[in-house]
């Protein structure tokens, strides 16, 4: 048995049975080991950003980390943005990165890079296996780290000789890392603060869906506090029957107004709200200056125990959480725009859909329209590195093959991980991609105005639009094996989206609309 085989066996023994991959020469022994273990599902992406983004989506929907297989420092570098997004969303991931054989490094071969530098900057844990006998133990530790703290990025660098040299059998799975908990006096102080006028319980992570969202809703119903979260959260349960959680907006001045009356903010699984960017003469944080901020439970602490303790402390066990009512709109008949697309989605999305949203400027009207749709999960991009929607959709569809996955995205952002369409086709994933073809990076026009620039000249315009030539999403999708159609009328979108919702398999709808139409 060689080192690579012990690693595969250790991953499987630890419950890791999905590997998103883009391997190269240095990983061939690991590929061979994967090939002899068919119980490990191996999924190829044609670009490393699709590999790591899919692993992020998989973790969000299962709470279990997948493995990735990446080729040397450049391969990890190509996947860096999606790892960044996962880390910002406190996701779990096990990156297996091949490296040159240790004795080969001194020759500075073409693909040699600062592999520890590039991996450490975005990983919570990095280890370079010293020899074949260490690989299995290192793999078990990588799994333990990835599952700790509600999800962490673990990166195991595997020099090629440690993969092909002989080793003893696999390592036993390691016990989980115990999560830290707040002290009883901190729980009591937080409960008292939540009963005060102007209080808010600000939650994130696993407190936004399932049982923990129910607990947060009970606390809010009992204390009278506002239940709130950020806009770009990794996963939020929405739609009919979901706990009613108020979301912040993108513009920082909107959030200043939203939080105007909040005097006590208790953070559970969340950090302090912060503006996405700094702007001249605008604040970096939206809360009022005299807001008392209680950082009760950081994202890496025991969120479940903390909410249970707050339920007990506030006497909320029998309370009923406020819920979002079913509010299905009529099918629209106006001009094709983000609002009519959102209304159509709300009317036609099935129960249990997963929406991987990166529609950028079109995202707000879609979110508004679908809030009262049938129950669904909403996945955003907490790290802000664009190109997330398509690989997230791959990971979500692998994790939940019985649920419809919908990926609204801008045309500019979709180009960053376009190759994920091929993986959808290869794996027969049930994903419907909606590309808003507004022919540019429309959000940058607003950002230019935010820093005080009102006149847009030729250079800026050519950096903002993706015209001349226009992107042909029907042709791009077809070239990756995905059926696609372009729509220019609302009725056409309704028909195509309804068909996508009633059948299975990947498809793409290009929404060609005039970006000058209002979106509010």
UniProtKB/TrEMBL annotation:
**Per its UniProt entry, which superkingdom is the organism in?**
Bacteria
Domain Thiamine pyrophosphate enzyme N-terminal TPP-binding, chain residue ranges per copy = 1-106
Q: Which UniProt keywords apply?
A: Thiamine pyrophosphate
Any stretches that span the bilayer, and where are they? none
The record, for SUPFAM superfamilies, names: Thiamin diphosphate-binding fold (THDP-binding)
Q: Which GO terms describe its molecular function?
A: acetolactate synthase activity; flavin adenine dinucleotide binding; thiamine pyrophosphate binding
Domain (Thiamine pyrophosphate enzyme TPP-binding) spans: 368-511
InterPro entries, sorted: THDP-binding, Thiamin_PyroP_enz_TPP-bd_dom, TPP_enz, TPP_enzyme_TPP-bd
Pfam families for the chain: TPP_enzyme_C (PF02775), TPP_enzyme_N (PF02776)
According to its UniProt entry, the protein's GO biological process terms are: small molecule metabolic process
Q: Which NCBIfam families match?
A: PRK07586.1 (NF005760)
Give the family per the record: Belongs to the TPP enzyme family.
Q: What is this protein called?
A: Acetolactate synthase-1/2/3 large subunit
* Organism annotation: Aliiruegeria haliotis
Q: What is the lineage of its organism?
A: Bacteria, Pseudomonadati, Pseudomonadota, Alphaproteobacteria, Rhodobacterales
């Amino acid at each position: 048995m060689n080192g690579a085989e012990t690693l595969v066996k250790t991953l499987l023994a630890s419950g890791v049975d999905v590997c998103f991959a883009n391997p190269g020469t240095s990983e061939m022994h690991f590929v061979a080991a994967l090939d002899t273990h068919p119980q490990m599902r191996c999924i190829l992406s044609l670009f490393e950003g699709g590999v790591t983004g899919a692993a992020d989506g998989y973790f969000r929907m299962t709470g279990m980390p997948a493995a990735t297989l990446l080729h040397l420092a450049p391969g990890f570098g190509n996947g860096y943005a999606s790892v960044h997004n996962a880390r910002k969303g406190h996701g779990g991931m096990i990156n297996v990165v091949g490296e040159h054989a240790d004795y080969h490094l001194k020759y500075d071969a073409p693909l040699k890079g600062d592999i520890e530098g590039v991996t450490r900057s975005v990983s919570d844990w990095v280890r370079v296996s010293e020899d074949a006998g260490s690989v299995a133990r290192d793999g078990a530790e990588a799994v333990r780290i990835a599952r700790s703290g509600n999800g962490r990025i673990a990166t195991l660098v595997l020099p090629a000789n440690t993969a092909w040299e002989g080793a003893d059998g696999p390592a036993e799975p390691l016990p989980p890392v115990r999560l830290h908990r707040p002290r009883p006096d901190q729980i009591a102080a937080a409960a008292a603060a939540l009963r005060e006028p102007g209080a808010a319980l600000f939650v994130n992570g696993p407190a936004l869906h399932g049982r923990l969202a129910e607990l947060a809703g009970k606390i809010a119903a009992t204390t009278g506090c506002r239940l709130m979260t950020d806009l770009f959260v990794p996963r939020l349960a929405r739609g009919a029957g979901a706990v009613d959680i108020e979301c912040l907006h993108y513009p920082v001045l909107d959030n200043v107004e939203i939080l105007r009356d909040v005097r006590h903010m208790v953070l559970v699984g969340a950090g302090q709200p912060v503006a996405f960017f700094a702007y001249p003469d605008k604040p970096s944080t939206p809360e009022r200056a005299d807001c008392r901020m209680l950082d009760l439970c950081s994202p890496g602490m025991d969120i479940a125990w903390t909410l249970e303790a707050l339920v007990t402390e506030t006497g909320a066990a029998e309370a009923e959480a406020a819920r979002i009512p079913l509010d299905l709109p009529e099918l629209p008949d106006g001009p094709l725009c983000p609002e009519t697309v959102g209304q159509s989605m709300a009317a036609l999305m099935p129960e249990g859909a997963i929406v991987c949203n990166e529609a950028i400027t079109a995202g707000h009207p879609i979110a508004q329209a679908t809030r009262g749709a049938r129950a669904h999960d909403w996945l955003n991009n907490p790290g802000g590195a664009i190109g997330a929607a398509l690989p997230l959709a791959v990971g979500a569809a692998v994790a939940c093959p019985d649920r419809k996955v919908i990926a609204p995205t801008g045309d500019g952002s979709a180009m960053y991980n376009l190759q994920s369409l091929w993986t959808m086709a290869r794996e027969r994933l049930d994903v419907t991609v909606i590309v808003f073809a507004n022919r540019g990076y429309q959000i940058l026009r607003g950002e230019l105005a935010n820093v005080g620039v009102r006149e847009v000249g030729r250079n800026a315009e050519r950096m903002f639009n993706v015209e001349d030539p226009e992107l042909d999403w029907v042709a791009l999708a077809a070239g990756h094996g995905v059926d696609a159609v372009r729509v220019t009328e609302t009725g056409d979108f309704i028909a195509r989206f309804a068909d996508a919702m009633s059948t299975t398999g990947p498809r793409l709808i290009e929404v060609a609309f005039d970006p000058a139409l209002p979106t509010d």
